[in-house]
Amino acid sequence: MSASRTSSLSLERLRRDGEAFMQEISREYYLAHSGQKANAELQPIYAKHAAILGDDALALTLEAFRGAAEGSEEQRAARLLLDWQAESQSGRQLAALDERQIAWEGSAVVNVEDGRQIQFETVSIEIGNSTDADDRHRIERARAKLVEEGLAPLRREHFQRERDITEQLGLAANYNATFELLSGVSLAGLKAECEQFLKDTEALWNETLPVFAKSVLGMRAADLTRADALALFRAREFDAYFPPTEMESSIRRQVRDMGVDPLAAGRITLDTGDREGKRSRAFCSPVRVPDEVYLVLRPHGGQTDWHTFLHELGHALHFAYMRPDLAFEYRWLGDNSITEGYAMLFDHLMKDAGWLKRYTQLGAKHLQPFLRSAGFEELHFLRRYAAKLIYEIELYGGEVRWDSLPDLYVDVLTKATSFRYDRADAFIDVDPRYYAVRYLRAWQLQALINETLVERYDVDWWRNPRTGPWVCSALFGEGQRELAHEQAQRVAGKPLSFAPLVRAVERMLG
Ligand SMILES: [Zn+2]
Asked: pTM here?
């Protein structure tokens, strides 16, 4: 039985059945995270597709990867398939644990000491919208207590087991070397860039933060916690210029102006209303690529929603405009810095003076203060992600004991952002499988794509009807066949770096 199953397994079958598996798992996550199902039933899906997720499938992709010529198209494809198989090994073995996490997140309730009860999934919205520092800190204490007891142990177990499972595959010396082999990204190289970036922007950060802390929250920088960061970046003072009722229609109009159908002839479905059980963190679910793509957003209010909607729309357009004849691995797998790059290309329109003037109600008077605020926020998020990467390299690296990681987490994140972080989040505030790497490279990539679009289609490329067809064919259409640094070279003729991001932040804060 085992022999015949092995011989019937081929890369072709892996691609065909793999696509069916990805569609089912993606639909299950979509239904659970959008609040349409209380629980995700992942284990039956893994069981049904066991034949393409086991040791045989892993061995097949490893053989294809090792047998392919360096730099060949076969090697490019095989690396993505091997990466997917390695990830599926953890996914399959951790499915029960992940189901428990999803159920916990969907039902947990924060009990504030004043008697209030807040759904865990809306607690960050509640904190961000609170105008009273004592109130924010009260909710935050209750949230930290809840996650320390319930969610943190689940997440810690997830990362411990994921590291063990990955290292037992024997693909490379340890977890970090395995990631580098399968992603084609140097962790040491990116870490060095992050450390340099933190150093280069430290003085600018230290002089900017106190000004905003005082003017927006009336607080001293020394008293700020991460709960205050939520309120600070929620930037309520600009709400009036970003009305919820205008969000979808304004942004859809802009996408049409650049020559793209924002719903991709019905392939994209927008789900932007409130619903109990919907995750507070917005997401895009490609259930069938390119034919069935969902954009799910739970409204928080104000400019935050506009920013998030643009980000998720960038993802949705990317998936919906991929060429349907691309191989499975280039539509479903690959370097997520690419899709995050398009998402960020769109959310960075919120930092474009011409775009803001045309599609929001800011007007000339509020434009400069808004751009300064946006520059401040950009600098914060870049510093936060640089610090996250430095911490996560230690989390996966195995040199620091698991019990010592929470102190390291607080130390690294607090130092980079000046907001006091909580030990409770050391295993929660982690983007699994080095997603921070994808974000950091996406940030660098979007700056180069934007430069290229300005060169080709002018400063208002976002309303030039010639832009869309090029973006759809030269960028979206390619799926995720290229790695981010390869695309940067092809499209912009430049390497990825933080330099254009630092220049943009200095311009906005200037
Ligand atoms: Zn994204």
From this structure: 0.94
